[in-house]
Amino acid sequence: MFAIFKDHLDQQQKTVISQTPLAGAINYTLNLFEGLQTYLESIELGPDNSAAERAVRPVALGRSSWHFSGSPEGADSSCAMYTLLQTAKMNHLDPGAYLNHILDKATVLVDLPYDAQAWSALLPWRFKPEDLSWQDRAEFFTSIE
Description:
8 helices, elongated, Transposase_IS66_central
């Protein structure tokens, strides 16, 4: 189907007047044609970037509210947290339960000598949704009093 489409574009490119919007669209498509087919090589990829756009939408919507992070370090921290939580969502995890779990583990790891393997075990793709469950609310609130 893509081969037929490309052949059609190649034929149209020869007949369309070069300074028209249609010619521009044909040239644009032909210039990107190899990249347009990339998703056919991998089942994980889709023909569009909708998933990526949905992942960054909360950040884009909140940008005016969080206009300044206070410092470059604050901006780096915000970026890391957004990335971590969006990756958790993409891995079908409850972001709150995931964050609760990893912060609990991180409080122990931070006091130990650095261990890259231990920290990487906290990355979202290492968990299944059933690995993470919220504590009973009453138990949770009792534990923080």
